[in-house]
């Protein structure tokens, strides 16, 4: 049901240390809290961009003679397997990235996801879901893929059984600065399709008018006696999207974005 005592091996300093003695904890065996507060109203973890912490993300580490390789990114990660949960024994002690474990929060432990990561967990038996913030290492059992906090296990209705078959899906939030920089360096060109007409003269006249109004070049593409007026190229998708919305509001409701 609960994590192996060897999980204490991963309390983080600048590296992942070896297993410490049992005297580190107030109790020997993990268990549920004896007088738990009402956790039914504890909210899901709220995904947001967080840089991966320096602690807890050593590229490789070893527990019980087995080595684990930490993923450089959680983007696109999905998995199915058995979830377990951990509670009172570890409550108030440090997690693998140096935070304090709170069994009443929506948190979790995973062997290889970078810390912190946000994961949507679904109990495949009852379809209940929860979003947790992964800030710890474990569980160190071959057949288990994630260790959930007491609150998360309560939400998934798996406290009595101790384990549950689950699906995991990372909710990945990219660094906003990196995303903006990538867009600035992007090689894609964006065009805004404004109108299409069989009247060539009207389309060409409108092209001149829109160029002057919006200070953006235009082009007219023809096929089968139909002339399509497009604004562009525009290098940044954000600017192209904004201009598309402006055109829709200013009399060209059928405008849409093209990317080449």
Describe this entry's structure for a reader:
This is Endolytic peptidoglycan transglycosylase RlpA. Belongs to the RlpA family. Its EC number is 4.2.2.-. Lytic transglycosylase with a strong preference for naked glycan strands that lack stem peptides. InterPro entries: RlpA, RlpA-like_DPBB, RlpA-like_sf, RplA, SPOR-like_dom, SPOR-like_sf. The chain is an alpha+beta fold. It has 2 domains: about 170 residues, Barwin-like endoglucanases (Beta Barrel); about 80 residues, Sporulation related repeat (Alpha-Beta Plaits, 2-Layer Sandwich). It is built from 4 helices and 12 strands. The chain has a 6-stranded mixed beta barrel. Strand 5 and strand 6 form a beta hairpin. It is elongated, with a radius of gyration of 27 Å. The two termini are about 55 Å apart. The N terminus is likely disordered.
